[in-house]
Amino acid sequence: MTLYSYLISKIERKNYREPRLLNKLIEKLPIPRDVHPSTGWILHYKVGFGFALFYHLTWNKYKPFRNMPTAITMGLINGLLGIGVWDRVFKIHPHPPDIDHRAFYRHLIIAHGIYGAGAYFGYLLTRERK
Questions:
Q1: Contact 28, 94 (CB under 8 A)
Q2: Is-contact 117 75, C-beta < 8 A?
Q3: CA-CA distance, 53 to 63, in Å (whole number)?
């Protein structure tokens, strides 16, 4: 998902790089602070790990959900959740980054669908080792 975000950012010449946007949001808070460049990455991957754990637990418990269409759907639903979070953050932040929100949100839906597919491939790889 993150690789997709960086690739599309480069192609469309827009900032869809979630870790960098997170850093910008933190840097522009009215509280003085030093923001390490890895902060956005850490936050982004913590959320991604949470999604992956949820997917893994769901697929272990509910066998009918173990398929690619469901994995992509789960990713799309997480994309909608992500849009809700990003939109709220942009609205309450005193100095949000100047980005095209509609394009960014469209990007998030696609990226999370890709994430769901990638998470499912990862799940299948771990299952085959057992």
A1: yes
A2: yes
A3: 16
Contact 89, 43 (CB under 8 A): no
Q: Which two tokens stand for residue 110?
A: 């696609």
Element (H, E) at 50: helix 39-61
Quick: pLDDT tens for 71-117: 999 999 999 999 999 999 999 999 999 999 999 999 999 999 999 99
Q: Tell me if 58 sits within 8 A of 65, measured CB to CB.
A: yes
What would the pLDDT profile of 2-28 be if each residue is shown by its tens digit?
Answer: 788 888 888 888 888 898 899 889 888
- How many CA atoms does the CB half-sphere of 20 hold within 13 Å? 12
